[in-house]
Design brief:
single chain, about 650 residues, alpha+beta, Heat Shock Protein 90, Ribosomal Protein S5, domain 2, Rossmann fold, 3 domains, ten-stranded mixed sheet, five-stranded mixed sheet, 23 helices, binds adenosine-5'-diphosphate
Length: about 650
Amino acid sequence: MSKQTHAFQAEVAQLLHLVTHSLYSNQEIFLRELISNASDACDKLRFEALNNNGLYEDAPELQVRLSFDKTAKTLTITDNGIGMTAQEAIDHLGTIAKSGTKDFVSKLSGDQKSDAQLIGQFGVGFYSGFIVADKITVETRRAGATPAEGVRWVSGGTGDFEVETITRTERGTSVILHLREEALDYANAWKLKEIVGKYSDHISLPILMEKEAWQDGELIDPNDEKAGRQPGGMVKTGEWDTVNKASALWTRPKKDITDEQYADFYKQISRDFEAPLTWTHNRVEGSTEYTQLLYIPSKAPQDLWNRDKKAGIKLYVKRVFIMDDAEALMPSYLRFVKGVVDSADLPLNVSRELLQESRDVKAIREGCTKRVLSMLEDLAKHDKAPEASEEVTDVLSDEDKAKLGQYSKFYAEFGAVLKEGLGEDFGNLARLSKLLRFASSTHDTVSVSFADYKARMKEGQDAIYYITADTLAAAKNSPQLEVFKKKGIEVLLMTDRVDEWALNFVHEFDGTPLQSVAKGAFDLGKLQDEEEKKAAEDAAETFKPMLAKLKEALKDKAEDVRVTSRLVDSPACLVVTDDGMSMQLARMLKQAGQSAPEVKPVLEVNPEHPLVKKLDGSVHFHDLAHILFDQALLAEGGMPADPAAYVTRVNALLS
Ligand code: ADP
């Protein structure tokens, strides 16, 4: 193929414009990005070679080489990984494929300064090279292709790039950066070594640099800090040294790893630029042996709600990278966890299908689930400072102090996903129930656990009361809560869309049943005194004829009409039968386009309310009955079946 010119995809051109026209606070990340691509390319080769050993050709030692030429003003990153065909070079280097870079483009604000800062944290893959280079040449050959099928890709980082066929004997890719005048610093062994140490120490692949020597023959070790500070006059020796630790982070003992290294590793594998909330790192021994390094991110990704999203676990077998997103290693409700599992038992050629069936994988999955739950329990335990005593806070260890407020942070981001586990992982139901948090009628923040609630229960109270609603305001002001407020009984407010569904799986906590305040007949058991019960019975008797009339008037809308003592200020409310589907859930199903049974609620009226008292003799009885019903529906977040009729009725009364 002779030289061809191709235009960049529009997004790439946009990105390149930003990269080449901005000043960076953090230029050096280009090297991290290119080394990470080189390392990915080696992982890919290793993986393909499992079924085709010939791909290694005569160079089985995978590695990355860094070299520079001060005279030519170039810096070259070479790997002997998978390489690219001409078509791959055109596709992969001319368009943005990966979601990481795409996400970045979608986050661009148009403000050059803040966008440039984003690049500094994020990196934009291959294109980061243009931060320091005004021209990039890529020479590559796909593993398994012939030397005549080499490819040269060249671009000045503006609208287009050129591709042509070349002869290239070595497999893999060289990225040759033609350094900008102001970036010539990077053609310096010490500087490169420093950056590699900072970002790429844990890459499980050796990164090599050629030893330099003074012209008189004295060797300069690239590991020696001083080397880079000497004036020029050095020559290359043809000897290469490994400049990174090249040991996979998770294989090192915990005590040798700093928090910063853990956080850096997380950023590398997750492509998140925020530090993780917490992590756990363990070697598990027993019938299955593996190492797990699992992280909980600080922020939920945008696609958290996509249940098809793959888990963020990378699978290694004896330090050989096998696959990304190994969904079999983590249940779906923990899909936000990122990390690495390195198994000593699985075969290297394990496929996704095999993973689903493997007994070892099942054990690993259970082990990882337990670990994540323990990690969350630990955060939850230390979330709040022991009640209001400064002395006690002082006694907290630094480690515990760091955990204050962490669980609340986690829960705000991932709590709703965690709840999916209630219906998915029955084996851990009890543990998951303890991790739930809700707002309540007495606590506005989502911080009340079932255990907290139980500890505050009234003498004689024998249920955990809750209400579900669309919003916190709707829940808090719901008529059903009135008598609970009056009696000072706490009610949990559940406002997550998954709550209704999740509650199908949680009926009790630690022996105390959960009771919806909007379901079933009103019965506070021992919390009501004899006098109140008597008054309720009397009211039911007195109102009997009127209730019959109401029932007749509303026979299409209400299953039944009865008096209640659960209301204080409101004239009426709607409830459903104990085993009925809540109105809230029925609405949600309808909104989601699913078939839901028609729920006919029970209308409950407050015999103490003036409106109800007046109802009986009124000439507007029929209209008032319907208004009462529709208002009760509105109060709990529903919508009258015929809104126009409701408005007409109210207006008729108003005028
Ligand atoms: P990302 O790494 O996020 O996919 P990049 O812009 O860094 O995005 O790279 C785009 C694609 O180019 C990669 O996914 C890969 O297919 C290809 N690529 C980049 N560098 C190399 C390399 N050194 N060897 C082989 N392929 C590469």
